[in-house]
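sorry for the late reply, my laptop died twice this morning and i had to redo everyting from scratch. anyway the thing you sent over, i finally got around to it. pasting the sequence first so we're on the same page, its 240 residues, then the predicted structure underneath. double check i copied it right bc i was rushing
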Amino acid sequence: MTTTPLGRASLARFVDHTLLTPQATHADAAALVEEGVELGVFSVCVSPTMLPFDPATTRERGLAVATVCGFPSGKHHSSIKAAEAELSVKHGADEVDMVIDVGAAKAGEFDAVRSDIAAVRAAVTGGRILKVIIESAALTDGEIVAACRAAEAAGADFVKTSTGFHPSGGASTHAVSLMAETVGGRLGVKASGGVRTLADALAMIEHGATRLGLSGTAKVLAGFDEEPGSAPVSEETGGY
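ok and here's the structure:
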């Protein structure tokens, strides 16, 4: 497999530049957009109430717009998740990151997990992207695999490790590897939660992440200044 060096600009295109804190204001979201443009990220990810954004501040400046659904617990009725996702799409979201019912996964109720995802998939239409947050740190390896299979069966575009709010923790290279192996390139893999340094980000990509959820994007990218040089990654992983 051929490798190419991953530099600052290339890494930035893996990033969903994220602001999901409960205290965030519209002014904070506007500042996130400006920083995202400056950093050259793929998208900005905000809470649904921060939408809509003026296309002149986002798409026309090279940013996709992502939001979350059923966040952060996932313990919402599927109809509520679907309605939330539908409203976000109407408000201009290009991508929706939904949280599964982690308790259903822990109970082995993967038909229910698949049905929940499918309800949101039906609301995220028009070529828009659906990412499924499985909260991998709270799951066993077998549950991670089953959750990824349920997401694929329901028509998701990505599986995602974490909300970043669960007490069990965020992304790990082990979980990312297992998720990537399970979906086999048919879905993207987003690593999110606890990815705070350049080394963290590069490790996630090396283990199969095709997107990164970062709230501290500037600090991660500043690692290129602190540690000159670039890291080789498979050219097949970039630009998902």
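Residues 232-240 have pLDDT under 50 and may be disordered.
thats about all i looked at so far, will dig more tmrw
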